Amino acid sequence: MTANTAQPTLTRGQVTLLVLLTVVWGLNWPVLKVGVSGLPADPQTFPPLTFRALSMGLGLPLMALTLKWMRQPLWLAPAHWPQMLQLSVPNMIVWHTVIIVAVQSLSSGRAAILAYTMPAFVLIWGLALYRERPTLRQWVGVGAATVGVVFLLSHEFERLSGAPWAAMQMVGAAGVWALGTHMLRKTTCPASTMTLALWMTGVTFVVLCILAALVESPQWRTPPAHVWFGIVYNAVGVFAFAHTVWFYLARNLPPLASSISVMLIPVMGVFSGAVFLGEPLHWQDLAAVVMIVLAIVAIHLKRSSSS
After folding, report:
1. What is the pLDDT of residue 204?
2. Rounded to the nearest 5 degrees, what angle is found at the Cα of 79, between the Cα atoms of 204 and 250?
3. CA distance 287 to 208
4. CA-to-CA distance for 78 and 45, rounded, in angstroms?
5. What span, in angstroms and rounded, lies between the C-alpha atoms of 267 and 37?
6. Non-local CB neighbours of 265 within 8 Å, separated by 6+ positions
7. Where are the beta strands (DSSP E) in 125-200?
8. What count of other Cβ atoms lies within 10 Å of the Cβ of residue 146?
9. In sequence order, what are the residues at sequence separation of 6 or more whose Cβ sits closer than 8 angstroms to the Cβ of residue 81?
10. Cα(307)–Cα(305) distance, rounded to whole angstroms?
11. Cα–Cα distances in angstroms (integers) from residue 278 to residues 30, 50, 109, 264, in the given order
């Protein structure tokens, strides 16, 4: 199966959703770091799987209320459960389990940098499994995004060397997420994107509850105020909004286009880490912004009439 060679473009509505998604998801990286590792002045850790499970548990009824308000179906026919479960593993279960554990050992917002190596894996999966033939602009986009990630990582190698397993876990999760993006785009499940998002989140919530009970129950305690802030932010911003938007984009755009579209999120993570957690900025961070913007333009800019 070959990829559609038409150049993907974003509608005005998709651009608006993408901007909001970038802000919400980008700011969430320092929120996650503080939630599971504590404040810089009070580094009290909180069980990461429990943090994620509480966020999902609070987010699920909000997602259901949103579906009800939008007159979207809450029920997923049993015939579609196998596809939903297959999509849940790479898009939700592996991703959320791995990143929330790994972020404890990585530097705050810059943990997002490793996660957003995803577009390179999207290209690899497309070539290896789906016989896709990326256009020249798509190659340029992935190359520019990769250079941007390298720029952002240039001051992190020393820190990452002290947590190699966490870094490898984050990159591995990015690779699995990339595969899930292809699967979501190619699914034949007729359910609405919001209904699928609700059920995938519900399945992941159950899995995380089981893992948290098995691994973290001796560490359970009442969350302090800053942890509750992170839980509520994730419930409302990440699960009730960002994930639904992402699944919509991933299902309605080619996998490579949707993955490149969210490449400003790690940039937001780096700069929000600098603002809220006092991490220093370097010229490489600004260079990365330029490269990632170039990647997005290369993927989404309409061809001129003369091309």
Report:
1. 97
2. 50
3. 38
4. 40
5. 21
6. 21, 22, 25, 26, 112, 116
7. none
8. 18
9. none
10. 6
11. 11, 27, 11, 20
Domain ranges of the chain: 12-300
Query: Mean pLDDT, to the nearest integer, of 78-101?
Result: 95
pLDDT, mean over the chain:
82
Contact (CB, 8 A) for 255 and 186 = no
In contact, 123 and 263? CB cutoff 8 Å? no
Look at the block and give the residue holding tokens 């591995």.
172
Q: Which helix (H) or strand (E) holds 293?
A: helix 283-300
Residues 176, 116: Cα–Cα separation, whole Å: 12
Q: 154-202: per-residue pLDDT in tens?
A: 655 655 555 667 778 888 898 899 899 899 888 999 999 889 999 999 9
Cβ proximity of 122 and 255 under 8 Å: yes
Which of 243-252, 257-266, 283-292 reaches the highest mean pLDDT?
A: 243-252
The structure's pTM equals: 0.82
What are the counts of helices (DSSP H) followed by strands (DSSP E) for the chain?
15, 0
Q: What token pair was written down for 148?
A: 């941007």
pLDDT > 70? residue 132:
yes
Q: What is the pLDDT of residues 104-114, one digit of tens each?
A: 887 665 677 77
Whole-number pLDDT of residue 144: 79
Residue 28 tokens, joined:
């969430």
- 151, 291 Cβ separation under 8 angstroms: yes
Q: In this structure, are residues 258 and 249 in contact, taking their beta carbons and an 8 Å threshold? A: yes
